[in-house]
Design brief:
Blueprint: H1 22-27, H2 33-45, H3 47-58, E1 69-70, E2 78-79, E3 84-85, H4 87-97, E4 104-109, E5 115-119, H5 120-136, E6 144-148, H6 153-165, E7 168-171, H7 178-188, E8 192-196, E9 198-201, E10 204-207, H8 209-217, E11 226-230, E12 244-246, H9 247-251, E13 263-264, E14 270-274, E15 282-286, H10 289-301, E16 310-313, H11 320-332, E17 336-340, H12 351-359, E18 363-366, H13 368-380, E19 396-400, H14 406-416, E20 423-426, E21 460-463, E22 476-480, E23 490-491, H15 495-502, E24 512-520, E25 527-532, E26 536-539, E27 542-545, H16 546-554, E28 559-569, E29 573-582, H17 589-606, E30 615-618, H18 632-640, H19 655-660
Parallel strand pairs: 4-17, 6-7, 6-8, 8-11, 11-12, 16-17, 16-18, 18-19, 19-20, 29-30
Antiparallel strand pairs: 1-2, 3-13, 4-5, 9-10, 14-15, 15-23, 21-22, 22-24, 24-25, 26-27, 28-29
Helix pairs in contact: 2-3, 4-5, 4-11, 5-6, 7-8, 10-11, 13-14
The chain binds 5'-O-[(S)-butoxy(hydroxy)phosphoryl]adenosine.
Length: about 675
């Protein structure tokens, strides 16, 4: 743990308060704070009973569970374990039975603007056919399947098809490199990879299948028997006879009936890799029953989802937000959702506003980084200013992935919500499966920049380094004191790391450590997240481990040593700043710039473009203590361009600071 945030004692006071609009509150699922407190009380009075009732009411069980929570192997908690269900059945068949077969499930808009609408009945057919196709390849319950696909109906179908046959999917974001993809394929032991020929972003075609080929050629992927390819662009690719098969050929003669595989509620639905504080990404393993329950409840509570809503979450299926709020949550509640391919700035920075207008989106959920970049774009070009679009269909806005600064919040509230739409600032993590702290749109008075209060049943608290509760107004470490149904089950293949990372002994081994610092307002008790307390950065809402980037840098033959820190950035929240020592002498001038470019591209190749350092500085050495430990807190100050005022008496080589002060 670093010294970054644990001693935060105040955050800038924010006094603006926005109560829920009366018409919204009147028809909301959770209407008014009394209703919220009543639910919290139910959870406090009878924790297991609270969850058991919700699980019975909200999920279709093939065989009901008899035990709600098993804590005997804590922190390996088990929820509803002897209950049998199928996630895809709960997302699709249940809606057909309710007579919603002809309702549009997905409105898909491609990068070029082409729109495809898929009803629940059609989606069910596609999923069943693809599930049967996977079965014909010998994929079955418990197998792992890596999905490396563009945003598409087929991406959602692939995930749902895995769920239908009890295969555990692991989606890898299409921006990751061949090396990152290979590491995940190997770690998860995939038997198949589902991909596309290419992906399209901002009018550009980018390879996917070629990267899969490259990943598999890196070795240790012998378990992969098949690669299934969705034809997105028709671009030229290699098809390896016997291993590779086109998706359309695979489903061509498959029945559109596929009996679901009934699995235990604890069956792993998916494994999703995320960055931790060491070099190796963690395979976060999620369950089926508890996970889906929370996806459904948060759709109802946080998003107040109603039958007439058109829900739009702009995330990619490669991240957890895309799992819970694209592939599973919206479908499990029978909503109509928008899925988009591309980027918010193509064909122009009005893409989001145009799509909201065109498809009459009612709920819009995006990341602060996107909002901030669209504010800049709207300031620069009046034609893409939201005032040019009819956004009157909107009734609710959401934010996710990183803290939203009050300025961006106000702009979002006034320009997109036109002062009528509550904003739900949802704090959660890959590990939590769904929202943890968020305003309830029909209940919670909003304060810009605060994720306000935990959802009912989520026992969030702020503690000090020894695990003791801190009073409101004092910053500390965010923990969750009781297990909840959608929590991470383990790190795939590494139970020890799971325990150490999330349930450390210093805190008694039973409280969940989120990895974030937080502070509660003295008067309202509202939570504000103050940032990660480990060596994890948040760049554009994406989690990046500093050690992962450092390992990539030192793998370059030129590099002797590297230290990576975050620095505040107007658009991306945090930006990656790398301090590098080369094996040769320290470069200066144009040569330094040229090597920096080379190293940035190297990192893109090693991890993916999202991990490219924004800035690189070269030194003869790095600031270290006498015992050789890199003093990152000093590097953070230098990266910000500030003067060091901290104690540097333990620093062995103070002269180095002068060298590292200047950007290239
Ligand atoms: C980390 C989790 C949540 C799904 C997408 C990101 C930060 C997330 C907020 C928020 C302040 C936030 C935290 C967290 N974070 N949402 N509303 N306010 N910080 O999931 O990649 O697992 O990242 O994102 O630091 O720990 P993730």
């Amino acid at each position: 743990m670093t010294d970054q945030t644990s001693n935060v004692t105040e955050v800038k006071a924010e006094s603006r308060i926005f109560p829920p609009p009366a018409p919204f509150a009147a028809s909301a699922t959770i209407s008014g704070m009394d209703a919220y407190y009543a639910l919290c009380k139910q959870a406090e009075d009878d924790y297991e009973g609270f969850w058991a009732n919700l699980a019975r009411e909200n999920l279709h069980w093939h065989k009901p569970f008899t035990k709600t929570l098993d804590e005997s192997t804590a922190p390996l908690y088990k929820w509803f374990e002897d209950g049998l269900l199928n996630v895809s059945y709960n997302c699709l068949d249940v809606n057909l039975q309710k007579g919603h077969g002809d309702k549009v499930a997905v409105i898909f808009e491609a990068d070029g603007g082409e729109v495809t609408k898929v009803t629940y009945k059609e989606l069910h057919h596609k999923v069943c056919q693809f599930a049967n196709g996977l079965k014909s390849l010998g994929v079955g319950k418990g197998d792992r399947v890596v999905i490396y696909m563009p945003m598409s109906v087929e991406g959602v179908v692939a995930m749902q098809a895995c769920a239908r046959i009890g295969a555990t999917h692991s989606v890898v974001f299409g921006g990751f490199s061949a090396k990152s993809l290979q590491e995940r394929i190997v770690d998860v032991g995939a038997v198949a990879v589902i991909t596309a020929d290419e992906q399209v972003r901002g009018g550009k075609h980018l390879p996917l299948k070629a990267i899969v080929d490259e990943a598999l050629a890196l070795g240790d992927c012998e378990k992969v028997r098949n690669v299934v390819i969705y034809k997105r662009t028709g671009g030229a690719i290699n098809v390896l006879e016997g291993r590779d098969i086109w998706m359309h050929d695979l489903v061509a003669n498959q029945s559109d009936v596929c009996e679901p595989e009934w699995v235990s509620a604890e069956h792993p639905l998916f494994i999703l890799y995320t960055s931790g504080s060491t070099g190796k990404p963690k395979g976060v393993q999620h369950s089926s029953g508890g996970y889906l329950l929370w996806a459904i409840l948060t759709m109802k509570w946080t998003f107040d989802i109603k039958p007439a809503d058109v829900f739009w979450c702009t995330a990619d299926i490669g991240w957890v937000t895309g799992h819970t709020y694209i592939t599973y949550g919206p479908l499990a509640v029978g909503a109509t959702e928008i899925v988009f391919e591309g980027v918010p700035t193509f064909p122009n920075a009005g893409r989001f506003w145009n799509m909201i207008e065109k498809h009459k989106a009612t709920i819009f959920y995006t990341a602060p980084t996107a909002i901030r970049s669209l504010i800049k774009a709207a300031d620069a070009d009046a034609n893409v200013h939201p005032s040019k679009y009819d956004l009157s269909s909107l009734r609710l806005l959401g934010s996710v992935g990183e803290p939203i600064n009050p300025e961006a919040w106000m702009w979002y509230y006034n320009n997109i919500g036109r002062g009528n739409c509550p904003i739900v600032d949802t704090f959660w993590q890959t590990e939590t499966g769904g929202h943890m702290m968020t305003p309830l749109p029909g209940a919670t008075p909003l304060v810009p920049g605060s994720c306000t209060l935990p959802l009912p049943g989520i026992m969030a608290a702020i503690v000090d380094e020894t695990g003791h509760d801190l009073p409101n107004g004092q910053g500390g470490i965010l923990v969750v004191k009781r297990p909840w149904p959608s929590m991470i089950r383990t790190i795939w293949g590494d139970e020890e790391r799971f325990k150490k990372s999330y349930f450390p002994e210093e805190f008694g081994g039973k409280v969940y450590l989120a990895g974030d610092g937080a502070i509660r307002n003295k008067d309202t008790g509202y939570f504000t997240i103050t940032g990660r307390i480990d060596d994890v950065l948040n760049v554009s809402g994406h989690r990046m481990g500093t050690m992962e980037i450092e390992s990539a840098l030192v793998a370059n033959p030129l590099v002797a040593e590297a230290a990576v820190v975050g620095k505040p950035d107007d658009t991306t929240g945090e930006a990656i700043c790398a301090f590098v020592v080369l094996k040769r002498s320290r470069p200066t001038g144009d040569e330094a710039k040229q090597i920096a470019t080379e190293l940035r591209n190297w990192v893109a190749k090693e991890i993916g473009p999202i991990a490219k350092p924004k800035e690189i500085r070269f030194g003869d050495n790095l600031p270290k203590t006498r015992s050789g430990k890199i003093m990152r807190r000093l590097l953070r100050v230098l990266a910000k361009g500030e003067t060091i005022t901290q104690d540097i008496s333990t620093l062995e080589n103070p002269a180095i600071l002068e060298q590292l002060k200047q950007p290239l």
